[in-house]
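Its record is retained below.
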Amino acid sequence: MKFKSHAQRKAVMAKLMSMKNLGGFRFDPQEDKWTVGRYLKTDKAKIKFVQKFPNSKGAPLYVAQQVESEIKKENESKKGYKSISIGDIQYKNQQAGQHFFSADTMKFFASRTESDAFTKDGTDYAYFVTSEKSGFDDPTRTFTVRRYNKKTHGIDTIGDFNQYKKRGDALAEAKELAKRG
């Protein structure tokens, strides 16, 4: 959701700046405006923040994060999947004694991972995308959809290795697989 006009944007920021927090301090335009701008990145999030907290707390970090988290959950439920960190998957895979993400393996295949994986609550799998060089002498990167097993922490290839020429196509497939569960 976007502000309908510059006047609406100005009114929202004026509302934020007039708020008092529990300690009686006013919204600090230098500190709190930066917090709201950084953690409430969309206009929808900023409007929801003002509506939810009209009489208290200017913009403490935890409130800003709480509102952003609620909006993210709403969006994820509409999409039919949620994003999870690839770092969590890498850690669990390595803790299980597997080597998919080891530095040597990644270097040998000139492999990179996207920062997010996609999953649906109540399922055993998450899907993510890797990219690899097409060949030792070819710098072109191609993309592969991978499946992470949440129980065994193993990684499988979905479809063919280097099946996708475009990153967006591989990401779209990973998201679609996550939606289906």
